């Protein structure tokens, strides 16, 4: 069994790998084995890898399973103590992996962790997808140390201490392999978006913790597969976020949160139409809510399993009791350190 398997899920990402794979191979140390799992790419990714990087272990998937199930399919073929889920558009730094592995070795109850995530295009700023660790507000809206909605902070060392978080970014996450499978892995039905938050929420409820280890630093391009302004991304984010709430919220909170989300989601839909003139996102939000209602009972068994496995019904340290919408849009809080 390997100590660490770095698994890059690729879909038509030859250009990204050409640019960033060398840093992964050169900076990850001898204990790490690098895999590329190809999600049925239609570019020349596979041939290019075989020609230029024969040392990379290649897993060829016969169809595009999406991000979530693509990783499940690939990781079943990997035997390691730790998995690293790594996007193809990540530039790593010298010895980036060592602080993450050392932290996990020293803290057996920590199931997963992430590094500090900075932006490739502005290396002094956090990156949107995970910054310095993720959280949820009471209504399920995600935010990060270093990023609230579209406001991304400069990195001045303000979040350089390790911290317990609710979710680690799927762009670069180290997780114990046996715990990954114990909690069921990523939910393949999500296809993409919110799947890592759902996974990490389950980790907490099973009694584990998730941390950010900022001593490790990587740089992320972001938005490589679907650009940020994309109706499909909007659809997946809304549908999957609602589904995640349905799966994981305790009974005493579910009805209240879902009533508020009905109201807030339709406010968001009409805001995209009336203010931003974005018909695509307007339709995507309506379609996401419709499809959530159609499939939510497919997740009833998941709710029951999580109830039985939940080790504590108290508030998780990283799930906040306030509304991030209220803090950001009404009270004008733009930095994580300004939040209650």
- State the share of residues found in helices, binned by percent: 25-40%
3D shape: globular
What fraction strand?
Answer: 15-25%
The secondary-structure element order is EHEHEHEEHEEEEEEEHHEHHHHH
- Spatial separation of the terminal alpha carbons: 45 Å
Describe the oligomeric state of these chains in a short phrase.
Answer: single chain
Number of strands: 13
- The number of distinct helices, counting runs of at least 4 residues, comes to 11
Q: Write down the overall mean pLDDT.
A: 95
Query: What structural class do helix, strand and pairing data support?
Result: alpha/beta
The rounded Rg comes to 19 Å
Largest sheet: 9 strands, mixed
Low-confidence stretches: none
Question: Can you describe this structure?
Answer:
- The chain has 340 residues and is α/β, with parallel strands linked by helices.
- The chain is built from eleven helices and 13 strands.
- The chain has helices at residues 14-27, 45-52, 66-75, 97-106, 177-182, 195-205, 231-248, 251-274, 279-295, 300-309, 324-330, and strands at residues 2-10, 32-39, 57-61, 80-86, 90-92, 110-119, 134-136, 142-144, 147-148, 151-152, 163-165, 172-176, 209-220.
- The strands form three sheets. Strands 1, 2, 3, 4, 5, 6, 11, 12 and 13 form a nine-stranded mixed β-sheet that branches. The protein has a two-stranded antiparallel ribbon with strand order 7-8.
- A hairpin with a 5-residue loop joins strand 7 and strand 8.
- Helix 6 (195-205) runs parallel beside helix 7 (231-248).
- The chain is globular and about 55 Å long.
- The termini are far apart.
């Amino acid at each position: 069994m390997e100590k660490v398997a770095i698994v890059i899920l690729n879909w038509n990402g030859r250009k990204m790998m050409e640019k960033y794979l060398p840093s992964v191979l050169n900076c990850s140390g001898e204990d790490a084995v690098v895999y590329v799992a190809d999600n049925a790419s239609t570019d020349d990714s596979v041939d290019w890898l075989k020609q230029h990087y024969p040392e990379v272990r290649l897993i060829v998937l016969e169809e595009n399973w999406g991000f979530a199930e693509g990783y499940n399919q690939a990781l079943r073929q990997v035997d390691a103590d730790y998995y690293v889920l790594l996007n193809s558009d990540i530039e790593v730094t010298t010895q980036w992996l060592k602080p993450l592995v050392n932290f996990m070795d020293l803290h057996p109850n920590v199931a997963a962790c992430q590094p500090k995530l900075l932006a490739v295009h502005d290396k002094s700023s956090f990156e949107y997808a995970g910054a310095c660790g993720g959280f949820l507000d009471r209504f399920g809206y995600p935010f990060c140390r270093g990023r609230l909605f579209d406001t991304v902070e400069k990195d001045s060392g303000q979040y350089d201490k390790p911290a317990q978080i609710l979710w680690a970014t799927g762009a670069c996450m180290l997780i114990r392999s046996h715990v990954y499978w114990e909690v069921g892995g990523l939910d393949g039905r999500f296809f993409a978006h919110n799947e890592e938050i759902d996974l990490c929420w389950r980790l907490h409820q099973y009694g584990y913790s998730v941390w950010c280890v900022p001593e490790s630093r990587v740089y992320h391009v972001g938005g490589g597969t679907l650009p940020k302004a994309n109706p499909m991304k909007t659809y997946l984010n809304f549908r999957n976020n609602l589904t995640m709430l349905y799966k994981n919220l305790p009974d005493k909170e579910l009805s209240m949160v879902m009533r508020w989300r009905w109201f807030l989601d339709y406010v968001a839909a009409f805001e995209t139409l009336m203010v931003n003139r974005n018909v695509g996102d307007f339709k995507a939000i309506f379609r996401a809510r419709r499809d959530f209602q159609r499939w939510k009972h497919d997740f009833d068994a998941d709710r029951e399993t999580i109830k039985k496995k939940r080790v504590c019904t108290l508030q998780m340290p990283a799930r906040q009791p306030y509304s991030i919408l209220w803090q950001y849009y009404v009270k004008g809080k733009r930095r994580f350190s300004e939040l209650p």
